[in-house]
Write a structure and sequence with these properties.
5-stranded mixed beta sheet, 10 helices, 3-stranded mixed beta sheet, alpha/beta
């Protein structure tokens, strides 16, 4: 069953990648994504495929990690006997609350370690997901890998995530599936399945521009996303893209000389696009 669970995890990531591309891309990779999804579905055993299709009709998030003994999808505690079955991965186990298929969280995966109160105290807009100390006003003329590494380090150094190396590796693996570079010099590298807290966003600026899989990128937004809020991440990414497609907002980010001024520019730019 472990191999089937791995296929399901790959399948869910591809489906969510397709959802992202449908919402913010130009559609040029849709056929390729559909073919990859169809190929993985053909590898599912009949019983597993039946469960997958039933859950998929309700939500594209059909799987959830079991993290700290709880379903990451709905937060419910998994009974001890059931939790052991999830760890053994000899049978397909579904959450008794939300119905999602469960898998054991990877031991070395990045986790959100910030305190809930750090970002939830009556905050609104982008402030719910980011902070001034997650802004890097000058990434320099670095590579895609270095940009992601610098932003992940900022998340770790400021107590938002654990294991930045795991986050970097996962973000680059996601880039290999389909580049997150968009028009107007924007890129949205991200990692799903970073459980333990809220969605976390770091932002960096490269005035020189970064070669991002053939595209020139100046503004990089790195996100660590709990699976349960994947749908909201799409809305946030769309809001960021809408804000920074405007030349005035990009120019304000380029003019920022430190974390405080970049944070001010981000908050102002997203005031009406990220709720």
């Amino acid at each position: 069953m472990k191999s089937q669970i791995n296929i399901l995890r790959q399948l869910q990531e591809l489906v969510l990648t397709r959802d992202e591309h449908h919402q913010t891309g130009d559609g040029s990779h849709m056929d390729e994504l559909n073919d990859s999804i169809d190929a993985l579905q053909q590898k599912l055993e009949p019983q597993v495929k039946s469960v997958y299709e039933r859950l998929y009709k309700k939500s594209h998030i059909v799987m959830a990690a079991m993290s700290n003994g709880c379903c990451a999808g709905c937060g419910m505690q998994v009974p001890i006997a059931q939790a052991q079955q999830v760890r053994l991965a000899q049978h397909l186990v579904t959450c008794s609350s939300c119905g999602r298929m469960l898998f054991a969280a990877d031991d070395d995966a990045a986790r959100n370690v910030s305190e809930k109160g750090d970002r939830d105290d009556a905050k609104t807009g982008i402030s719910r997901f980011s902070a001034e100390n997650l802004m890097i006003a000058d990434l320099g003329a670095c590579s895609r890998e270095e940009a992601i590494a610098r932003l992940a380090a900022a998340m770790a150094e400021n107590g938002f995530i654990s294991n930045p190396d795991s986050l970097i590796t996962a973000a680059l693996e996601r880039e290999n599936v389909l580049s997150t570079a968009m028009g107007e010099g924007l890129a949205f590298p991200h990692v799903r399945g970073v459980e333990g807290g809220a969605l976390t966003l770091a932002m960096g600026v490269s005035r020189e521009g970064i070669d991002w899989d053939g595209a020139k990128v100046n503004l990089v937004f790195l996100s660590a996303i709990p699976v349960a809020v994947s749908a909201f991440y799409l809305r946030m990414m769309s809001g960021l893209a809408q804000a920074f497609n405007k030349a005035a907002n990009r120019e304000a980010a380029f003019a920022a000389h430190d974390a405080a001024s970049l944070w001010k520019a981000l908050v102002k730019a997203t005031r009406t696009t990220v709720k």
